[in-house]
Amino acid sequence: MKFNKNIILQILLILFVSTLSYSQVDTIITPYNVVKIKSIGEVALSPNGKLIAYTVIVPREVNDEPGFAYRELYLMNNDGSNKRSFITGKVSIGNITFSPDGKFIAFTGRFENDKSTQVYVIPIDGGEKFKLFETPESVIQFKYSPDGKTIYFTSQEAVPDKIKKLRNKGFNQIIYEEDWQHINLYKYDLEKKKIEQLTRDCTVFEFVVSNSGKYIAAAIAPRNLVDDSYMFKRLHLIDLSNNQKELLIDNPGKLGNFEFSPDDKYLVFNSAVDINDPASSSMYVVEVPNKEKKFSELRNYSEKFEGTVNWVGWKDNQTLLFTAEEGVYIPLSEQGLNSPNRKLITPANTVVRKVIYDQVSKKYYLVISKFNHPNEIYSFDVKGGFKRLTNVNPWLENVRFARQEEVRYFARDGLEITAVLIYPLNYEPGKRYPLIVNVHGGPEAADQNGWVTSYGNWGQMAAARGYFVFMPNYRASNGRGVEFSKMGQKDLGGKEFDDVIDGIDYLIDRGFVDKDRVGIGGGSYGGYFSAWAATKYSDRFAGAVMFVGISNQISKRGTTDIPYEDYYVHWRIWSWEDFDLVWDRSPLKYATNCKTPILILHGKDDPRVSVTQSMEMYRALKILNQAPVRLVLYPGEGHGNARTQSRLDFAIRTLEWFDFYVKDKNPFDKIPDKYVDYKIE
User: Strand, helix or coil at 468?
Assistant: First the structure.
């Protein structure tokens, strides 16, 4: 066969141009490539320490049908070699673990004709997956017994058949906060192939099995409601010889993770210090079983520690492991049971997301976030340092990243504040630039100096467009101790927002920022701050983006699914105890001040912050007609966007808003076109 040389040259030219176009797009971070970024999800180490199973979170393609990201299963050797895909494609794999004999990887998923999520296993040396047993409702969490003969799992109670029949006939009314079913604990005997229910009249949110198989420790609450999962989980011990449960310790407020010591004598847990602690901030150890010791009698290993503990575990019977948010970092530390102080394991400037310690090799396997790479798996030992084992976004190696660093400044009352600052990609010293203040939610959260860019966090996307991006960890944030995190209580939008203003002034004084081109945006509590900025502090901001934010604190508190969490760790009063104060901290009160163009975005099905919060703000500003305002609603989305299409729209639309009003300083009588060109065929 003879080929026409001209056709061949044309094909090569097209391929070259296509490659060039793609490489140009992916040499900076844009909305189009940020929504395709993959990330490490779960990680599990085999019993002999030689294999690592992990999941990769894979966003759907924009042209795919709308839905949540896929979660694929992979396996590799513990040195990162011999990576192989086990289950990939349009799947959602969760709860990965190795069977105690190390021959299988077990996981949850929904395949073929499954009506609910089930437990499957797949041989590590290849072969087809198969289902272990069938449950009428989805399996939420599961654990093997140490001998491998039993699987313990949680699942929601089935809706009674009578109710199902009525719903099918159109009697589908909802009895608010009463139409819920308990999450129960069950066990499945692999030899007898029999399921037995272990708990009733309570909800089991999380659990762990002791190393001897004698006990289960469980986080149990009275109801299966979001507020209960936040504020009312208490640690219980279930004796598996008779299935009797009893309160292990009456931990107050929020509860984090918990683990048995290797010898099962103790349980370490991550807990709030009291009911008003905004986070499960501290580390405690209780004997198993507990010899009538009260929570107040336990040692707080994090007392006077300027950080927020967010994970706890064990190195050996006498040594605890923990990670904590400390300023803008999350290092890994160890703490002897009888030692006065902790010892850093990783460098202080590490951002550690997950930890596995191998008792055999004495190595750590960590999921680490860096400013130029989202979560990846690393091995670590003190002598050899870090070795990256995965690279799920190889295209990032060719991306130009802007300078990103920790900054510290002092608020007007002398309190030191930490923040993350990203410079414009082509920064020139001495030149002033536009600024986007990217405010985190919570406020019990913190921004770390790791990977900070996503559809809802402009980060390196905005830096590539010529902005400084400023992420302040204002008072009430995590990472600076319990006292710091409580400073915003009963003072929402007060001194904590002064910290944001003081940070902006700090950047202006350094000669970085043009004071007339400052924008602000964020989601949830960050959305509240953005609305607060656009109204009460309108003279300071050229543009704002309010995402799933609060406009009216009075109506918000009556429509949220976490009223008790809001009361205990934010307000410390109910609205009717001081209506004037609650209304005073509502952006809607200051709507007549608004001269800042504000883009409002909200998921239509948000249970945390009702969509009516955005509607109230929009309606007031639209009637006042003092500044441009636009409301964008996302059908099917809740408290944050989960679907790729919604995420891409958010990223493009918000950046265009900032470009129009902040960077380019267009006059207020103009407004960007409501349509976004997604460049999708």
Answer: strand
Are 188 and 195 in contact, with CB atoms under 8 Å apart?
A: yes
Token pair listed for 576: 């009717």
Dihedral angle sign, alpha carbons of residues 638, 643, 647, 648 = negative
Residue 676's pLDDT band, with cuts at 50, 70 and 90, is confident
627 with 661: CB under 8 angstroms?
A: no
Residue 627: CB partners within 8 Å, gap ≥ 6? 534, 538, 594, 595, 596, 597, 598, 621, 668
Spell 355-393 as b/e; 16+ CB within 10 A means b.
bbbbeeeebbbbbbbbbbbbbbbbbbeeeeeeeebbebb
Where residue 197 falls among pLDDT bands split at 50, 70, 90? very high
Cβ-based burial of 340 (10 A; exposed 0-12, middle 13-18, buried ≥19): exposed
Instruction: Provide the mean pLDDT of the chain.
Output: 94
Spatial separation of the C-alpha atoms in residues 417 and 409, rounded to whole Å: 5
Separation of alpha carbons 91 and 79, rounded Å: 27
- CA gap 648, 652 in Å, rounded: 6
Phi and psi (nearest 5°) for 243?
A: 60, 25
Strand partners, 244: 239
Query: Torsions phi, psi of 66, nearest 5?
Result: -60, 145
Q: What is the largest CA-CA distance in the chain?
A: 89
User: Domain extents for the chain?
Assistant: 402-663
Residue where the block lists tokens 């995420």: 647
Structural tokens at position 172: 């589908």
3-state secondary structure of 535: helix
Which CATH number is 402-663 given? 3.40.50.1820
pLDDT (tens digit per residue) in 362-406: 999 999 999 999 999 999 998 889 999 999 999 999 999 999 999
